[in-house]
Amino acid sequence: MRLRQPGWCRMEPAWMEGDRLGGMSVDMSGDLRDRLRLYVITDSHLSRGRSTEDIVRAAIDGGATAIQLRAKDLDGLDMYRLAVGIRDIIAAHRVLFIVNDRLDVALAAGADGAHLGQGDLPLTAAIDLVRAATPERDFVLGVSARNLEQAVLAEKGGASYIGAGPVWFTPTKPDSTQPIGPAGLREICGGVGIPVVAIGGISIENARDVTATGVAGLAVISAVVSAPDVREAARALAAITLRETAGTHRRPRPE
Hints:
The chain is an alpha/beta fold and about 260 residues long. About 35% of the residues lie in helices and about 15% in strands.
């Protein structure tokens, strides 16, 4: 395994030259930060009856650069099948595919990575599992952080990126902690060298306030998944992230 390490490292996966992994062939030669600009997270409860696959297709058509499969109510088998389907949809696009929480599903389905919360499998254990399972391929491991201390620990532990938030209150996580706001987000961005993706209550109305903090990208759920037109919602946010996050790339790592 070549884990995406701290810094603005370029992604050079084992399948970049045409090798295939689990049926997927993806060009990941660009900067990881580029892949995190618009990070769309699925949620079947918010998709207005549309399938997760249709949401993913529309989001990618609108400019999503990363898709995270979030399906906490599915058992392992159903989540694996859904992950394989999404992997196949994404295969023709230069889009990062991340599985939330379930590292086992991410590895089995040939996803590009997994995202771990503070209450999930410890990062050190996750790294050991990935190294044992896929020693010859790159793998992205994101970690959630609510404050700078958690973000720094994740970076030191080998995380590829930080999911920082919630920035504002979000109905998708009603029991989440106090929002960190743009000020807390700015502190995290300034304190680590790996990419930071903001999450929590982000919409087209406040997206520029978030990008001004120095994040690499925006992670959204309802702003895209619940939109009447998923493609157009993604396109509007993608335009903001492309324009507003350009200056955050290749930032020096804090000493």
